[in-house]
Amino acid sequence: MTIEVTPIVTGPFVENSFLVHDPKTLDAVIIDPGDDPGRIVRTVEQVGARPLAVLLTHGHIDHVGAVGRMLEKFEVPLLCHEADQPWLDGIEKQAQMFGLEVGKVPRPTRYVKDGDELVFGSLVFKVIHTPGHSAGGVCYLIGRTLFAGDSIFQGSIGRTDFPDGSYDQLIQSIETRIIPLGDDVTIYSGHGPETTVGRERRSNPFLG
Length: 208
Description:
Blueprint: E1 4-10, E2 15-21, E3 27-31, H1 37-47, E4 50-55, H2 61-64, H3 67-74, E5 78-81, H4 85-89, H5 91-97, E6 110-112, E7 117-120, E8 123-129, E9 138-142, E10 145-149, E11 152-153, E12 156-157, H6 167-178, E13 186-189, E14 195-196, H7 197-203
Parallel strand pairs: 3-4, 4-5, 5-6, 10-13
Antiparallel strand pairs: 1-2, 2-3, 7-8, 8-9, 9-10, 11-12, 13-14
């Protein structure tokens, strides 16, 4: 199956939100709507896509700031890992830390867990739990494309200095859950450009 990925860079943290859609059916999901809800909505309308869900890789403010507006506009379910619910509950405290104003994040419709298969029309994702950046951090794999949140970046890895972060756990997650997916897998991260598993396996200074 062919998918099209439209990155939408949002907010003061320069976070990558993603519109993922099937060009044949126009079935779509929105991953990590971090900010700039109007721009995300315009992108959906320009593509002509039909959002069926909002997926969160984790609950940090730069990845969830536009969630409320997306759910109001598209009336779709919200999915994330239960271990990151405390981050969603504390969104206002997160916002205060950075001098931002963010509305409350609605309670997720469903909690995902490792190994879940998520079907949204013609789109089928596999959930891969990759804790370390946050306790409930997950990646979403569709075909040979991985949406990795802040677990791994081109040439780097996610921060682990949060209360529920762990450097050792993140490295283990990457080395045992992401690298074995295969060199040809394209990685879309929460910040920065896309990369591949092969490139990171060979050159990421934090690995191996």
